[in-house]
Design a protein that fits this description.
elongated
């Protein structure tokens, strides 16, 4: 049961940490309102983001073992890489584009993985030949 939602929880945690690193006003304001403004440090957020993305990738990999479809894993890995590079390496407007596109890829991969898990094992729907 816990593996079923590892991709979802990991992707959400990684995206939230990345948006906080990027200075998204809603996330930063929410942390400040909760009295958790001290969490907005790279020394805390980077390991949190990378750990969350590792959990998401583990969830995608467990999905591959379950439904034998690599598409969610590939999209999720590319999204995690782009998101991480946008936070850690690239700065300025290109970084924001990378963070948002990496986040979108992680959401897409999570949806594809969940859909593949709910289909019957022998079903040809959604499989590429």
């Amino acid at each position: 049961m816990r593996l079923k939602f590892a991709d979802f929880g990991g992707a959400v945690g990684g995206i939230l940490a990345a948006l906080c690193c990027a200075g998204n006003p809603f996330i930063v304001g929410g942390l400040a309102a909760l009295g958790l403004g001290f969490l907005r440090k790279d020394a805390i957020l980077w390991p949190l983001m990378l750990g969350s993305l590792a959990v998401a990738l583990y969830g995608f990999w467990s999905g591959v073992r379950m439904h034998q479809r690599f598409t969610p894993m590939i999209i999720g890995a590319c999204g995690a890489l782009v998101l991480s590079l946008g936070v850690i390496v690239v700065h300025g407007p290109p970084a924001m584009a990378m963070i948002y596109s990496g986040s979108a890829a992680l959401v897409l991969a999570t949806l594809l993985n969940q859909r593949a898990r709910t289909q019957r094992p022998g079903s040809a729907v959604g499989r590429s030949a």
